[in-house]
Amino acid sequence: MDKTSNQMNVLVTGSTSGFGRSIVETLALKGHRVFASMRGIGGKNSSVARELEEWSRREEVKLEVVELDVLDESSVDSAVQGILASAGHIDVVVNNAGIGSSGYLEGFTMEQARHIFDVNTLGPLRVNRAVLPSMRDRKSGLLIHITSATGRLYIPGLNIYSGTKYALEALVESFSYELAPFGIDCVSIEPGGYPTDIAGNVTAAADTDRLAGYGEGTNPASGLYAFFGEQFSRPNPPDLKEIADSVSDLIDMPAGQRPLRIVVGDVGTDGLEELNDVTEKIQKKYLDSIGL
């Protein structure tokens, strides 16, 4: 067990599977006190909650399962206040909860679009708003957001999903400027393609009348699925733990020295680091030009 002497109190959203499950287990094994949040711990996710609790007892780590629904502001506030009452403070938040989308943009109903943005973009905003007063009081903290390579480089068919991640990237950058004077770092982790369970949590365009105009049985994301299928079946497929290790590395970095964005993975990320480098230079030049 690789336990660190610098224990942090870490809240992770979307801890049931995929990136979230890997993140909470990795951080707990590193010696951090981890609050693995999810919705429905007494219902749909009760078995997952039990598994994590049993795992934590076997491994003798500090991991607690917390009820938190990123769609419900009162649920978020209640979870955060409960953690603060128990642990005293929250050092790190990992905004990981999210859902996917697939299909022609015109085929998504407005209700579907609102829901996906509510989870992927407003969800992290709710969580950050709940924890930031206590972080500002302590003048320290780290907000990590699991965004996506497709929040910077667009892939046809991922329209709404990409839109939510593009928007989240903008919020992350805004927070990074506004919170720096308080000693709070704000970072975006941009994963490429990974074989996660998000494939089972994808909202498909539902307006059949609109979709009919595009031709029966077509999906603009079909090429992406074929590409990812090939990559995930290769001898050394992408490992989810790469994301968890990146989170751990960010936590270990000195405050004020963490990058705004980091790219993780080699599937679907070609050119992304170059884009980020160029964007950073242009952004700095732009802010200088307007006196900021």
- Helix-strand string: EHEHEHEEHEHEEHHHEH
Q: Regions with pLDDT < 50 over 5+ consecutive residues? A: none
Main β-sheet, spatial strand arrangement:
3-2-1-4-6-7-9
Helix and strand composition category:
alpha/beta
Helix content: 40-55%
Count of separate DSSP helical elements: 9
What is the global morphology?
globular
Q: How far is it from the N-terminal to the C-terminal residue, by CA?
A: 46 Å
Q: Approximately how much beta-strand content do the residues carry?
A: 5-15%
Largest sheet: 7 strands, parallel
Q: Which architecture per CATH? A: 3-Layer(aba) Sandwich
Q: What top-tier CATH class fits best?
A: Alpha Beta
The total number of structural domains is: 1
Structural Rg: 19 Å
CATH homologous superfamily assignment: NAD(P)-binding Rossmann-like Domain
Can you give me a brief rundown of this structure?
The chain is an alpha/beta fold and 292 residues long.
Walkthrough of the structure:
The chain has 292 residues and is an alpha/beta fold. The chain has one domain (9-289): Rossmann fold (3-Layer(aba) Sandwich), CATH 3.40.50. Helix content is 47%, strand content 15%. It is built from nine helices and nine strands. It has helices at residues 18-29, 46-59, 73-87, 110-138, 159-179, 208-211, 222-232, 241-252, 272-289, and strands at 9-12, 33-38, 63-67, 92-95, 100-102, 141-146, 184-191, 202-204, 261-264. The strands form two sheets. A seven-stranded parallel β-sheet has the order 3-2-1-4-6-7-9, with helices on both faces. A two-stranded parallel ribbon has the order 5-8. α5 links the parallel β6 and β7. α4 (110-138) runs parallel beside α5 (159-179). The longest helix is centred in the middle third of the chain and has 29 residues, at 110-138. The radius of gyration is 19 Å and the shape is globular. The model has no long low-confidence stretch (mean pLDDT 93).
